[in-house]
């Protein structure tokens, strides 16, 4: 029997898997010197005892916003300034003004973690704490509050208003906000006042290109994988795929991690393009499963009906276009109707059905084309964007029980 440590080592593909996890913050961030400097400049005033500038950080997923923000907070801590305080919160967890305020207070004063206080009470505690003596008696603190994924805060206008007002109410010390988001339209939802308060300063993170992603991957591979396990072709491919997908470094890292796991399972010694391809396919399918899981029941059934038609070996009337097999929409609809009835449900009308097809196509789950003349006039032809067996098993897990 293997020991735990033998098991944990696997067959030597990985050196330290943690390094490849999305939560790992590398000590050296590549290609972000300018962005780091901009965030540092916004924060810098707290080291001189005044209020930091509010900053809004925008950029697509995986462009390094979170790790840059955490990196700057670490650097701020290293200054050991007695009055400079910072806290990082992810708003997916703390998604309201109340929860944020409560968390900030309990972060600095764990004994006050009780719930049930009114907001007004929390607010007063907050002001008291900022005005009060810091470590070794320094009076009045300057706090930087990093709100990651700030767009999910339900009452964000209220929150920004409160934090702005706090600076007026405070006799000593200050509070400022770094808001981070990957939603481009989110600023439009804010009212003018909170928008201008939050966006005193703004930094935009551009997507990484393939070469930069390669640099980021090289750095992690050296730490995360055993020597010479990952072939250069695998890194190239993972970088190219992620560059094509909004320059998302998280996706690039996830592909490599997964490719490594594929290699581990197959007990092979080298990770090549083939394993990255497999990882990509699995990642795509995960994404599809997530999308399918959140579809309304009848859309799932329509998708399932197309999978059943696709798998039907007696079904001869398919059309081949550029090497892909397409099936008649009308017949998929009949199959759907039969399935719905069997499940004791009223099938939707064909108008709804066309609407569903449109949505399924927009979500990237199916492809449709219009048939040329000759094949029963104008018919809509459909095919699945994923393997029918995969679609079936995903849908079966969530709805169909025959
Ligand atoms: N410049 C970089 N150097 C090294 N690793 C990076 C860099 N940018 C992003 N990463 C890594 O990519 C992943 C995603 O970065 P993250 O900061 O979470 O992106 P975002 O918050 O913009 O979605 C993390 O694992 C992070 O460590
Ligand atoms: Mg992030």
Would you write up a description of this structure?
With about 400 residues, the protein is an alpha/beta fold. The chain has 3 domains: about 35-205, P-loop containing nucleotide triphosphate hydrolases (Rossmann fold), CATH 3.40.50; about 210-290, Orthogonal Bundle (Helicase, Ruva Protein, domain 3), CATH 1.10.8; about 295-400, Winged helix-like DNA-binding domain superfamily/Winged helix DNA-binding domain (Arc Repressor Mutant, subunit A, Orthogonal Bundle), CATH 1.10.10.10. It is built from 16 helices and 9 strands. Strands 2-3-4-1-5 form a 5-stranded parallel beta sheet, sandwiched between helices. The protein is globular and about 85 Å long. The two termini are about 40 Å apart. Adenosine-5'-diphosphate (ADP) binds next to helix 3 and helix 11.
Task: Produce the secondary structure layout.
Layout: H1 4-9, H2 33-43, E1 55-59, H3 65-78, E2 84-90, H4 97-108, H5 119-131, E3 142-148, H6 156-169, E4 174-181, H7 186-189, H8 192-198, E5 201-205, H9 210-224, H10 232-244, H11 249-265, H12 273-293, H13 297-311, E6 319-321, E7 324-328, H14 329-342, H15 350-362, E8 366-370, E9 380-384, H16 388-398
Parallel strand pairs: 1-4, 1-5, 2-3, 3-4
Antiparallel strand pairs: 6-7, 7-9, 8-9
Helix pairs in contact: 2-3, 4-5, 6-8, 9-10, 9-11, 10-11, 10-12, 11-12, 12-16, 13-14, 13-15, 13-16
The structure holds adenosine-5'-diphosphate (ADP) and magnesium ion.
């Amino acid at each position: 029997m293997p020991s735990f440590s033998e098991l944990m080592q696997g067959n030597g593909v990985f050196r330290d898997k943690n390094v490849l996890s999305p939560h790992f913050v590398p000590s050296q961030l590549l290609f972000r010197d300018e962005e780091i400097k901009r965030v540092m400049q916004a924060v810098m005033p707290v080291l001189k005892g005044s209020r930091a500038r509010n900053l809004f950080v925008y950029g697509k997923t995986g462009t390094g916003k979170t790790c840059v923000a955490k990196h700057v907070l670490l650097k701020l801590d290293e200054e050991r300034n007695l009055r400079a305080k910072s806290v990082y919160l992810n708003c997916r967890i703390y998604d309201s003004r109340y929860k944020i305020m409560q968390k900030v207070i309990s972060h600095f004063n764990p004994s006050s973690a009780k719930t049930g206080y009114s907001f007004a009470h929390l607010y007063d505690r907050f002001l008291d704490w900022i005005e009060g003596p810091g470590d070794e008696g320094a009076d009045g603190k300057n706090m930087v509050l990093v709100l990651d994924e700030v767009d999910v805060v339900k009452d964000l206008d209220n929150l920004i208003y409160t934090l702005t007002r706090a600076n007026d109410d405070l006799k000593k010390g200050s509070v400022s906000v770094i808001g981070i988001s990957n939603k481009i339209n989110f600023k439009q939802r804010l009212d003018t006042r909170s928008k201008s308060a939050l966006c005193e300063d703004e930094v935009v993170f551009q997507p990484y290109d393939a070469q930069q992603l390669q640099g980021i991957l090289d750095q992690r591979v050296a730490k995360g994988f055993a020597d010479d396990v990952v072939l250069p072709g695998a890194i190239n491919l993972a970088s190219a795929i992620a560059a094509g997908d909004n320059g998302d470094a998280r996706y690039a890292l996830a592909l490599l991690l997964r490719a490594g796991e594929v290699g581990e399972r197959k007990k092979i010694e080298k990770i090549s393009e083939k394993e990255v391809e497999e990882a990509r396919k699995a990642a795509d399918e995960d994404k599809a499963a997530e999308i399918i899981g959140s579809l309304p029941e009848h859309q799932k059934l329509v998708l399932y009906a197309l999978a059943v038609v696709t798998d039907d070996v007696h079904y001869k009337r398919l059309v081949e276009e550029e090497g892909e097999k397409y099936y008649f929409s009308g017949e998929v609809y009949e199959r759907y109707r039969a399935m719905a009835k069997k499940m004791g449900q009223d099938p939707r009308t064909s108008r709804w059905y066309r609407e569903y097809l449109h949505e399924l196509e927009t979500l990237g789950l199916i492809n449709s084309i219009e048939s040329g003349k000759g094949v029963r006039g104008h018919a809509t032809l459909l095919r699945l964007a994923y393997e029918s067996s995969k679609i079936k098993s995903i849908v079966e897990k969530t709805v169909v029980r025959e």
